[in-house]
Structures are given as C-alpha cells and as structure tokens.
Amino acid sequence: ACACAEDVPGAAAAFEEKLGRIVRRAVARVLPLASEREEAAQRTRYHLLVRSQDGPAKIANYRGEGPLASWVSVAAIRLAVSMGRAATSDRKLSAKAAGEAAGVDPELLLMKQELRKEFEAAVEAALAGLADRERLVLRFYLVSGMTLAGIGKTFGVTQQTVSRWLAQARTDVVAEVQRRLGERLKLPSGEMTSIARLVASRLDLSISRLLGAA
Fold first, then answer.
1. How far apart are the first and last CA of the chain?
2. What is the pLDDT along the chain (214 residues), one digit of tens a residue?
3. Dihedral of CA 66/70/72/76: which sign?
4. Which one, 19, 54, 146, 192, has least CB within 10 Å?
C-alpha cells in the first residue's frame, strides 16, 4: 500500500497480482453485467492507485488497521454502488411503499405529499448523523441489494450481527426523523403518531434515494 501510494515502480503490478481478484470479486457482488464489472474494476484501480491534483492516491488512506484485502474490497464495493444500482432498487421500494400506503387514510397521504420536503431533509440529516459503518451497511443493503450474508463476509461478521446493525441504524434514523419533524412542525402527539407510520412506510425508499445519490 505504501509503495503504491508513493508510486514505486512495480507497485501497481504487485497490487494487481495480489489484489486484482479481490477487486473483481467485490464488484461482482454489486453489478450484474460483465461490462459494468470491468468498468468498476478499472475505476477502482484508478481511484486507489492514481495520484490526483489534491494529493496522493487514495490507497494512502489505508492505515493498516485491518487486512488490506478487506479494505480494498470495501473500497471497490463503494465505487460499484456509486455507479448505480439505485434505479432498480428504487423501483422495487417504490412498489413496496405504494402497497403499504394502500391502507392509509387519504388525508394522511395528502399530508405525506405536503411534508415530503421536510421529511427528506430530516432523513438526510439523520443519515449524516450515523456512524460511517451504519451508513455503509444501509447502502449495501438498500442500494446495492446485497444479502446479509454478503455484507457479513465484507465486514467479517455473522448475518445476525449485520441484521442487528441494520435494525439499530433504522431505529436511530426513525427516532431522529421523528424528533426533527416534531420540532419543525410542532404537531400534537396524536398527529405525530400518524406521521410516525408514514415515516416507517417511506423510510427505506428515502434512504435508498439519498444514499444512492451520495
């Protein structure tokens, strides 16, 4: 990693020999098409190994606090996610949200539309307050469509641990969104209960959209 960051001759070739398959395997977890995978792998190499005008290559950010292969895998998955699986995920979540909304009172649906900007701003702020790991796990699950098992392998933990992380992240986001909406809108507790149901029905869709655009 240090040799790549310092652009030592032969370092990039050594990176490809030892870690190239790690990059290819990581992007394959996210992108379905061979052409997309190849592009993502190339972008990962460029992102990690090529010095920018702002400073050294991104691999210089590796601090040796865990296996380099795991660090590179996460970096590759981040980049693959940013290339866009959000559209497919967004369509699925839209359909899910529409189905859940079918049994909601029309007045609440109207309120939902009127409060959309407030709601999206509150979700964005809540996501910004999460730890990096929580945001990344939500991105993997909701944007890239990774399974709990796949996420667990990436972080070296069990599916049960990933499930707990997801549940806690959602709980934290819901609590913060309700707090912010309550302060902003100053609604009575009865109306906040209705808003809370709307928050729950739309939460995954909003998180997916926001993280997919990040």
1. 27
2. 999 888 888 888 899 999 999 999 988 887 777 877 888 888 888 888 887 767 788 899 998 888 899 999 988 888 887 775 543 444 444 545 554 444 545 445 445 555 667 777 888 888 888 888 888 888 887 777 778 888 888 888 888 888 888 888 888 888 888 788 777 766 665 566 666 666 665 666 667 666 765 5
3. negative
4. 54
Residue 118 tokens read as: 């407030």
Q: Is 69 helix (H, G, I), strand (E, B) or coil?
A: helix
Reported as half-sphere exposure (CB side, CA atoms, 13 A), residue 67 has a value of 10
Return the HEC string of 110-169.
HHHHHCHHHHHHHHHHHHHCCCHHHHHHHHHHHHCCCCHHHHHHHHCCCHHHHHHHHHHH
Number of residues written out for the chain: 214
